[in-house]
Design brief:
The protein has 394 residues and is mainly α. It has one domain: Growth Hormone, Chain: A. Helix content is 79%, strand content 0%. It is built from 17 helices and no strands. The chain is globular. The protein starts with 6 loop residues before the first helix and ends with a helix. The relative contact order is 0.16. Mean pLDDT is 84; it is low at 189-201 and 384-393.
């Protein structure tokens, strides 16, 4: 279409949108928590509640993303604005109740941006025959994690307070919104053809997709929650430990780029299963190989696959969902969020009432990831030519 943004521009805009939503709205709290502990005396339990508030918000955002009467472009803008605003409010407020509110809203906004950006970018790239650029879009999550982690590390070493760090990240998020303009302005491509019937006729296929993605959320969150704490006990060097989070993000970014290349030779389902099995190995590695080596291998296995699975899941939703791709993407995101919430709750209940250990919970997480692979063995329905819902692409 004349005046349509190039696929390179669309991919870059999607990269920035996900970097802001996930790197700042979701995961900047991880490197900022030690700073808040140091200058605001935030305890571990309080940090856990703030993280849980963000998780709950993320679930709420995923549940509402498909049903709000907004175009995808409006959902994207509202989400990005809310991420920038709540990040700034974290830096100017000091009350516990306000922190809970801001982290909850940031979680809602992050889910909105993920669903909207995935819907806008994957739809436009598919119509332009440039699905190979999807890896660039989802590399934004890892890129945002790496950048926010490095910024927090440098600010901490230079003596900045956590409040100042929140405000600097908020300013970065606000400026970055301008780079996402190609996603919410300009002409909108519309896919021609008939209604997508294959996706609608195989409800079991969609439920298998949703359930597998939820299992991924459950299996991922336990190592993501406890690996940093395990590593901290083995690394006394604060700057060295501070580099672990940016490196985690870098691995996540590079993995999606590599996966886009592999998609030219292997099927989406095959790569998803391989990635999920690698994650399962990483989940149990600290049990099988106690010590720093096992934790490093686990971090690489988990960090190098979680965004690959996210990208492949969103791509599959775009293909399987057809005219209702945004709704299916939102369902997958909600399933992940539910699994993410269930993981720590499961560990706490087993630990407190059954005397279970972290090791046993990690085994359960690995088995859950393998079970998710079994749900991927049967092919999902392919999208038939369909009329795109204008809300999906605008």
């Amino acid at each position: 279409m004349p005046n349509s943004p190039s696929t390179r521009v669309v991919a870059w805009a999607g990269f920035v949108a996900l970097a802001v939503a996930m790197g700042i709205g979701r995961f900047a709290f991880t490197p900022l928590l030690p700073m808040m502990q140091a200058d605001l005396q935030v305890g571990l339990a309080q940090g856990g509640w703030l993280a849980s508030a963000n998780y709950l918000g993320y679930l709420a955002g995923a549940l509402t993303a498909a049903y709000l009467p907004w175009r995808a472009s409006t959902l994207l803008l509202m989400g990005l604005f809310s991420v920038a605003a709540t990040t700034a409010l974290m830096g100017v407020s000091t009350s516990w109740s306000s922190w809970i509110a801001w982290r909850s809203i940031a979680g809602v906004a992050s889910a909105w941006v993920l669903v909207a950006a995935a819907s806008l970018c994957l739809g436009r790239l598919a119509l332009a025959g440039a699905t190979h650029r999807s890896g660039q879009v989802f590399a934004g999550v890892g890129g945002g994690i790496a950048l926010s982690g490095l910024i927090c590390l440098l600010l901490d070493l230079r003596g900045f307070t956590s409040a100042q760090a929140w405000l600097i990240l908020a300013a970065l998020a606000a400026v970055a919104m301008l780079a996402t303009r190609p996603l919410w302005s300009g002409p909108v491509p519309v896919q021609a053809g008939t209604q997508d019937t294959a996706a609608r006729s195989d409800g079991n296929g969609q439920w298998r997709l949703i359930l597998s993605y939820g299992f991924f959320g459950f299996g991922y969150i336990l190592p993501a929650t406890f690996l940093p704490a395990q590593a901290r006990t083995l690394l006394d060097d604060a700057p060295l430990f501070g580099l672990a989070w940016p490196l985690f993000g870098l691995a996540a970014a590079l993995s999606t780029l590599a996966c886009s290349t592999l998609l030219r030779r292997f099927s989406r389902r095959f790569l998803w299963m391989v990635a999920q099995l690698i994650m399962a190995v990483g989940v149990v590695m600290p049990v099988l190989l106690p010590g720093l080596t096992g934790i490093v291998i686990a971090a690489l296995c988990v960090g190098g696959t979680f965004m690959v699975i996210t990208m492949l899941g969103m791509q599959q939703a775009q293909v399987t969902g057809g005219a209702r791709a945004r709704a299916l993407m939102a369902s997958l995101t909600a399933a992940f969020a539910a699994g993410q919430l269930a993981g720590p709750v499961f560990f706490s209940l087993v630990h407190e009432h059954l005397g279970g250990t972290l090791d046993s919970s990690l085994y359960v997480a690995a088995v859950t990831l393998v079970a998710g692979c079994l749900l991927l063995l049967k092919p999902f329905p392919a999208q038939q030519p369909g009329t795109a819902d204008s809300n999906e692409l605008e």
